[in-house]
Amino acid sequence: MSCVPFFEVRRLHELNDVQGEIDAAVLRATRSGWYTLGPELDSFEAEFAAYCENAHCVGTGNGLSALELALRAHGVGPGDDVLVPSHTFIATWLAVSATGARPVPVEPAEDGFLLDTEQLESAVTARTRAVIPVHLYGHPVDLDAVGRFAARHGLAVVEDAAQAHGARHRGRRVGSGNAVAFSFYPGKNLGALGDGGAVVTDDPALADRLRLHRNYGAQQGYDHRMQGTNSRLDEVQAAALRVKLRHLDDWNARRNRVASRYTAALAGVPGVVTPDVAPWAEHAWHQYVVRVTDRDAVQARLSAAGVETRVHYPVAVHRTPAYAEEGFGADGGLPRAERLAAEVLSLPVGPYLSDEAVDTVTEALGAVLAPSS
Ligand SMILES: *Cc1c(COP(=O)(O)O)cnc(C)c1O
Questions:
Q1: Which of 27, 83, 183, 319 has the fewest CB atoms found within 10 Å of its own CB?
Q2: Ramachandran assignment for 216, one of left (phi > 0), alpha (psi -120 to 50 degrees), beta (any other)
């Protein structure tokens, strides 16, 4: 039986001996004697901003913190509401809660995964200060629609691009906006050797506030201008990320090839819904997510056939104990998020996967879903 693991960072680094390049970069950083807010970070920030077709990048300790600091830099705090997708990773909500504001969930479009821009309008109140479009699984949200909505109501737009490094929106990179938060968690499309994150922005004043926030409120030394925090992207991570950034487009192209092969092979398989791509979007394929009924049984049978899958995410955020007491979605008010939590299944989409490995997955899924089985 040939086994297909879900995702292995080690195999990604083996492609074209990226591991050798990472080793050299890490050695350079560890021997430099400079470990935070140094030249590797400066270079990575300039290179990642350029990659995103934007002006400024501010590295942070992780993606959750990038989101939180972006919200704070926009003045979001206690008493404010922030519109968030009901279907997302919990970090999107936690970032809002960390500022003292309240996350207000908005459902995805019917038969989609992403925030429904048509439903944003009815979620706005006098307390609403910002909206967080999440480019979930690597597919960009319709930023033109979000931008028009936000401008109408005077809201800040803080994008959660933790899963969308390299995606494009009507030809423009995800990351070319006003406040775009990225995560460099090792499993993301661009991952560090541990935790990391960044905010990319076109606004020099916002970038300055973010640099204060991440460093105890000080630009340098003990000149504390505000009550900041400590959330920095360290030199070793920045050095590794500079190497991996150079391979990101190749890796995303490989993910796209895997995804296309899945979609073609699964087109004729009854009982599985494959992911759509908007005609204006370039998908980063952080995850290839199908929907099936009886998901847990399908996942168990795939596992028995040697195909490892994951679920992003098994419990809707408002149903987790972390948020259950806030009462969102009481009386079944967030049915789409709950249905997605029950039906989504992520197939392996590692850039190193061979055509044979992809075929192993689709054949196993076809066998599991076959009416006679
Ligand atoms: C990974 C992720 C985050 C948080 O990033 P960390 O670096 O793990 O803190 C936020 N939002 C989404 C959608 C994510 O996938």
A1: 27
A2: left
Which SS3 state, helix, strand or coil, does residue 160 take? strand
Contacts of 62 (CB under 8 A, 6+ apart): 183, 184, 185, 195, 196, 197, 231
Give residue 268's pLDDT.
85
Packing angle between helix 63-73 and helix 204-213, nearest 10 degrees?
Answer: 120
- Give yes or no for a contact between 134 and 85, defined as CB atoms under 8 angstroms apart: yes
Strands 128-131 and 81-85, how do they pair?
A: parallel
> Residues 25, 55, 68, CA angle at the centre, nearest 5°?
80
Find out whether the beta carbon of 237 lies less than 6 Å from any atom of ligand 1: no
| Probe target for ligand 1 pocket from 113, 185, 237, 346, with the most ligand atoms within 8 Å of CB | 185
Distance spanning both ends of the chain, measured CA to CA? 19
Instruction: Enumerate residue ranges in the chain where pLDDT < 70.
Output: 1, 372-373
What is residue 372's predicted lDDT score, i.e. its pLDDT? Answer: 67
Backbone torsions φ then ψ of 200, nearest 5 degrees: -110, 135
Residue nearest to atom 2 of ligand 1 (CA): 162
CA dist 310 → 162, 296, 300, 320 (Å): 18, 10, 11, 18
State pTM to two decimals.
0.98
Q: With contact defined as beta carbons under 8 Å apart, do 179 and 74 qualify?
A: yes
Residue 39 confidence (pLDDT): 98
Residue 54 CB less than 6 A away from ligand 1: no
- Rounded CA separation 241/326 (Å): 38
Where does 234-344 have alpha helices with state H?
Answer: 235-245, 248-266, 295-304, 321-324, 335-343
Instruction: Give yes or no for residue 231 CB within 6 A of ligand 1.
Output: no
